[in-house]
Amino acid sequence: MARFATLRETSARHAAQQIRVAANPADIADEWRLLEETGHATVFQTRAWLEPWFEIVAHNARADPVLVLVSDRASGAPQMLLPLCRRRERALASIEFADLGASDYNAPLIATDFRPSQTEFSSLWAVIRSVLPAADILRIDKSPATIGNAPNPLASLSFMRRLSLGAWNVTLPASHDAYVREILSARHRKELARKHRRLEASGALRFVRASGPNEAVIMLRALADMRRKRYIALGRRDILADDAFCAFYENLLARADMLAETWALDVGGVRVAILFGLRHAGAFHFLLSGFSDGEWASKSVGSVAADFMIAQAIEDSLQVFDFTIGNAPYKRHFGAVRRDLFGGAQALSYRALPQVAERRIKGSLRALLLPPAAARPMPGQWR
To answer: Which residue segments constitute the domains of the chain, with CATH numbers given?
Structure first.
């Protein structure tokens, strides 16, 4: 691991729990591993994702790790881990999840038997806040209602609000025929078939995975080239225009754990689309894509590539295809269902009060336009 800034390690007690704040991921590696392997975690809080994130992205952004570990006082068993970081943003020092735009979901790792009531977790949260390193504001964004099939305790905190931004995924059936027949609407089933036929008129279609780490990195760089002009034209932030994030994604592709993978769609031997995603716990998380412009821009190569990727996920016996965050309409065309995300902020000093107040007002206004809330899991679904 890299050398991390030496924030002062702190600890506190709360009822039946011990709270520890560590500044180096290596110091809580065993507890992290145990929670990941036996508890509930999103792919974006796994060690495979965050170890290179801390090494590369956090180091480049001068963000210090803030790892909050909650353990049972009697047994010492880890119950929850919050992988946070502290950084300076303009005049404010911020504590937030280890993300900076890379992670689509921010949530704690929790043990299977960690099921505090809303009152219990609110009390625990107050103690956690008291042992955090000095900062002006604490932010939580893109936090899902559930982690695996367990409720996310962060979503119950009083300052958290349901976001207009949603996550979208498809629960996959056992076969692609069943997916087409049962999940796609008749309209979009016909439309997708039409897009395949139109693209096939330009040449044979071939959907391939990178044969190894070297080819995967080459494909990722080609993906970055494909999307560069489009993002500039749209005035959107392109995460692949940042060298630190490029190095991070390339590191993921080179790792032996094979968390990340790249796929490409070729038409008549011409590469027209490249996809990047993560495979974890029975799900494929679709994160990045790039498409050729010019004559291919009007031939729906993105839709066809996504359909191939879903078919591949079904063939590989995955249970979920996750389009992750963003409310783009095309996700619904593939049968994706919205999952609620939550976010909020707390002022840790008077300097952050205006920003927190502004955020809450804007959040309240956006909430008026939100669809009905998704049903929360019942206690019987937590197991």
So the answer is: 10-166+340-373 (3.40.630.30), 173-318 (3.40.630.30)
